[in-house]
Design brief:
single chain, about 325 residues, 11 helices
Length: about 325
């Protein structure tokens, strides 16, 4: 089984083996803000001696570059954007905020270039923003990557629901990715995070990836994925089916959710004894879900069509985090 950090390392390492360079920068990314990554090891006896772990995995592999950056989100994100524009198909370029809230100070890069640069100037970038997100008691400016801002800047029409014929088209997902201005994801499992990162190099057109990165899930024992889910033949899942319900016809309520809140809802469902009445599929690609998609024959969620109610579960502020 792989936890979140190992799934990310698998994504980076597999790309390096295939000759694709990987670049990661941000405040405290070498260790990881939450001490989960440790991609740079320091010699405790020889001052200044360090080793990049992922640069020593395969012979003739591509280069892995990881740098702790200065405390200027605006400057660093602007630099990484320029780097990604020069190598859109040969590098996976990632910038990670120490906390997702800090992307605030780089808002002009996000608004002027990432969300609209392709439409205005034909700029194509596959830059990845990793934004740690979640109300988990860390207080103001350390809790929210402001997911709603990124969703509001998606250029899809929220009033347009794909028809059954469109959903049945095997190229439906590719067409959506080709037409969108960027992707906004809130992955629920390490395997889906693995595929999302690797998929950046396989998109029909390079698109920015805005990722709500986890915090507590980094150490949640339930946030694990089988290695089999990351092998050839597996792929990114827009909706992850909840397989715990034995009789789909008994389901009365369908809760669509993503990220950390999925594990919170599963725990509450078990405590309330509602395992066979409530299903909680994980929705990762947030702007693309719809009730029609959930009941379409091509969807992994087709078995939920008996449910009487569809609701969306999300992580809200609590009184604890506002104190």
């Amino acid at each position: 089984m792989a936890d979140w950090a190992l799934g990310e390392a698998f994504a980076f390492g597999s790309l390096l083996k295939e000759g694709v360079s990987v670049r990661l920068s941000g405040q405290d990314v070498e260790r990881g803000t939450f001490s989960h990554r440790h991609h740079i090891l320091h010699d405790q006896e020889v001052k200044g001696k360090r080793m990049s772990v992922l640069n020593r995995v395969f012979e003739n592999q591509a280069e892995y570059t990881v740098h702790n950056s200065i405390l200027s989100e605006y400057g660093v994100l602007g630099f990484e954007l320029g780097y990604s524009l020069r190598r859109p198909r040969r590098s996976l370029v990632c910038w990670e905020a120490q906390f997702g809230d800090f992307v605030n100070t780089a808002q002009c890069i996000v608004d002027q270039y990432l969300s609209s640069g392709e439409k205005k100037w034909g700029l194509q970038t596959g830059l990845v923003l990793l934004l740690p997100h979640g109300y988990e008691g860390e207080g103001p400016e350390h809790s929210s990557a402001r997911l709603e801002r990124f969703l509001q800047s998606c250029d899809d029409d929220e009033d347009a629901c794909p028809s059954a014929e469109e959903l049945a088209n095997p190229h439906f997902a590719q067409n959506q990715l080709r037409q969108c201005n960027w992707q906004v994801l809130n992955p629920t499992t390490p395997a889906n995070n693995f595929h999302a990162l690797r998929r950046q190099l396989a998109l029909p057109t390079p698109k920015p990836l805005i990722m709500m990165a986890p915090k507590s899930l980094l150490r949640n024992p339930n946030a694990r994925s089988s290695i089999d889910e990351m092998l050839p033949g597996k792929e990114f899942q827009r909706v992850i089916a909840d397989s715990s319900v034995q009789n789909p016809a008994s389901v009365k309520k369908l809760l669509l959710c993503s990220g950390k809140v999925y594990y919170d809802l599963v725990k509450r469902r078990q405590e309330d004894g509602l395992q066979q009445q409530v299903r909680e599929p994980g929705v990762t690609a947030l702007p693309t879900w719809s009730s029609r998609y959930c009941r379409s024959p091509s969807s992994a969620s087709n078995s939920w069509r008996h449910s009487r109610m569809i609701a969306f579960g999300r992580n809200e502020k609590s009184s604890e985090t506002q104190q």
